[in-house]
Amino acid sequence: MSKHDENREATRAELIRLGLLRFPAKGFTATSVREVLADSGISNGAFYYHFPSKEEYFLAVLEQVARESGDFAAAARASDATTLEGALGELLAALGENAGLSYAIADFVYANRENEAFRARIEAVHRFVIDALAAWNEVQQERGLMRTDRSASELAEMSFAAVEGHLLHHEVYRTSLGDAVGVAVRILQP
User: Fold this and answer.
1) Over the range 21-54, which residues count as b (16 or more CB within 10 Å of their CB) and which as e?
2) Domain that holds residue 16
3) pLDDT tens per residue, range 105-150
4) Which of 57, 81, 104, 150 is disulfide-compatible with 86, CB 3.0–4.6 A?
5) What does the CA dihedral 95, 99, 105, 110 come to, rounded to 10 degrees?
């Protein structure tokens, strides 16, 4: 790989990192490209070389987060957790650094609700996350920590919606996040 290619990849990686910092803080619509680039040393030209629009940039950030989220099932198998609460605590701690993206995603979807191509990409990221959570759920079901009267996929959808709902309520209404794990436990427990 040439030095130019290395620099280009490093710039793109830094832009993704900056997006993960900036979008959760203010949401999609209130975050400008100028704010993303502030104090980064990256020019507008470099930004637009990598991403044709702020929307494409936001989607690239989400897709990168999904790719880097790791193998939830492998993490579950490696865990020493003996209770559902403990296993969920570990999972949420691993996911916690990206929790603020829920509000930014909702903001993005609302701002782009007529764009089917963008919605399809958001839905693909959602499906990826649900599939990863379902794989984690299967391990917990095998361990007897989670109910088995519903499929791992159904439980992933239900628990994700509940936790994401808590995150959105926290952002919108400034409610406590304290019971998010408790709600997920009540949904998932045998």
Assistant:
1) ebbbeebbeebebeebbeeeebeeebbeebbeeb
2) 1-54
3) 999 999 999 999 999 999 999 999 999 999 999 999 999 999 999 9
4) 81
5) 140
| pLDDT tens digits, one per residue of 87-103 | 998 888 877 667 779 89
Does 13 reside within a domain?
Answer: yes
pLDDT for position 155: 98
Q: Give dist(CA 60, CA 16) in Å, integer.
A: 8
Closest CA relative to residue 28, chosen from 176, 171, 184, 159: 171
Same domain assignment for residues 175 and 118 = yes
| Number of domains within the chain | 2
Q: Identify the CATH number of the domain in which residue 47 sits.
A: 1.10.10
